[in-house]
């Protein structure tokens, strides 16, 4: 520790905030609080936040580790990525804070412009009203300037022909003419599905009275009022196992599948009871298999079944059944 430099810094420091109080105990507490204050987290600049300070220190620590471990590829890659991110944040935060200071007028060269504004009119109320009128009339003044820039021979219908190749950061509201609305309506598809109003522009299905008859009569030309049978119209059709209707709803298909599942409930109950039968029948065969293997390998009567199959490298009856 450099005691000489510390002594010089203490001598040059301003201790007036400690000498203000006349109580020795209170002065001691103030002095100790000032010494134990964490100077590392103090902001170097207004735009340098504690998070940026931690990022800078982490970047420096990674750099030191990279110097001690130059062959660690993962560490080198991590350091380069973190350094790039940290430098980008620092370069972005500084000009951003400078712009904020300029907009909010919080720089070192502060100038109170409100005093000049209040002197423009006799009373402060008139000055404030003038400022409000200025901001509230920005839109109308801008619209008047745009309309004034259009030639005198232009009409409202021709305003839609103004070029819309404006920059992406601009904002404008164009007047909509009757001609533009008519062109949009005429460009709509006439054979699309109905909208919220339920109105079909072109009918996509026949009338309810439409009939197709299977003529067996000898009348020619065919008469629509003959006694020949007619085909019955159906509300749905089955295609690839799926029931479809003209509204493309799933009600019919779901009801049909529900009925089919209900018919199979008793079969599933029988399968549940039948599942215990193989266990009862196969246990006798498994016991005979284990007894034969123990005799062949000269094992004891109560030898472990797991070790028996492991030593013999044979499959159980169940495993043979699954294998086949």
UniProtKB/TrEMBL annotation:
<protein>
    <submittedName>
        <fullName>Putative tick transposon</fullName>
    </submittedName>
</protein>
């Amino acid at each position: 520790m450099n005691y000489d430099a510390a002594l010089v810094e203490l001598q040059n420091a301003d201790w007036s905030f400690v000498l203000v109080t006349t109580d020795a105990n209170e002065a001691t507490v103030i002095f100790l609080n000032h010494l134990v204050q964490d100077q590392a987290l103090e902001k170097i600049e207004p735009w340098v936040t504690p998070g940026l300070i931690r990022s800078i220190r982490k970047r420096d620590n990674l750099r030191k580790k990279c110097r001690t471990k130059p062959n660690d590829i993962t560490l080198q890659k991590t350091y380069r990525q973190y350094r790039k991110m940290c430098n980008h944040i620092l370069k972005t935060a500084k000009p951003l804070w400078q712009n904020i200071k300029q907009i909010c007028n919080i720089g070192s060269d502060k100038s109170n412009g409100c005093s000049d504004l209040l002197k423009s009119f006799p009373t402060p109320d008139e000055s404030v009203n003038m400022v409000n009128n200025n901001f509230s009339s920005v839109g109308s003044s801008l619209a008047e300037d745009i309309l004034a820039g259009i030639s005198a021979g232009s009409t409202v219908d021709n305003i839609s022909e103004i070029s819309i190749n404006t920059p992406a950061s601009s904002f404008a509201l164009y007047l909509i003419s009757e001609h533009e609305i008519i062109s949009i309506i005429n460009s709509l598809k006439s054979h699309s599905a109905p909208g919220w109003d339920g109105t079909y522009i072109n009918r996509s299905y026949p009338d309810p009275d439409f009939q197709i008859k299977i003529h067996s009569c000898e009348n020619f030309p065919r008469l629509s009022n003959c006694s020949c049978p007619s085909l019955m119209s159906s509300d749905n059709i089955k295609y690839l196992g799926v029931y479809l209707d003209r509204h493309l709803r799933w009600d019919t298909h779901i009801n049909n599948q529900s009925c089919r599942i209900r018919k199979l409930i008793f079969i599933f109950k029988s399968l549940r009871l039948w599942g215990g039968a193989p266990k009862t029948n196969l246990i006798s065969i498994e016991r005979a298999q284990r007894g034969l293997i123990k005799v062949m390998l000269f094992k004891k009567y109560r030898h472990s079944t797991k070790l028996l199959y492991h030593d013999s490298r044979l499959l159980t009856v169940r495993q043979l059944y699954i294998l086949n």
